[in-house]
Amino acid sequence: LHYPLRRQRQMCIRDRGRTPLNPLLGDSLTRAGLVVYLNTSFPVIRERIMRRGTSGLLKGPDPEKELRETYEVRHPVYLSTAQLVVDGDGDLTEVITRLADRIKEYEHVG
Questions:
Q1: If 0-12 CB within 10 Å is exposed, 13-18 middle and 19+ buried, where does residue 37 land?
Q2: How many CA atoms lie within 13 A of 38 on its CB side?
Q3: Which of 7-11, 69-73, 77-81, 92-96 has the least mean pLDDT?
Q4: What digits encode the pLDDT tens for the residues 59-78?
Q5: Cα distance between residue 29 and residue 45, in whole Å
Q6: DSSP one-letter code for 86
Q7: CA separation (Å) from 32 to 39, 54, 58, 74, 94?
Q8: What is the residue-wise DSSP string for the chain?
């Protein structure tokens, strides 16, 4: 993971959830570039996952509990791994606009 990430000039990697939980991978990401966390509230995440209906977390006897427990474990790790935290609630256009604005601010300061 170290080598391919360092060879690229610019790229975006979308993580589906577990990468920052592995300390070796999370550290690799922060060394390789800017790690952004789209900080999305639990109600919004729950609604999006339930609407899609494709998450393995929905297959258990208590999907709400599984989603909540997963969120509670992952959220603090994501916050501590990210160099930039952006509000992920709202429609796609709002989130993208906030993300672009925050990256510009980050680049200006950094």
A1: buried
A2: 19
A3: 7-11
A4: 888 888 988 998 999 899 88
A5: 23
A6: E
A7: 21, 31, 33, 21, 27
A8: -HHHHHH-SS------SSGGGSHHHHHHHHHHS--EEEE--HHHHHHHHHHH---GGGGSS-HHHHHHHHHHHHHHHHHHH-SEEEE--S-HHHHHHHHHHHHHHHHHH-
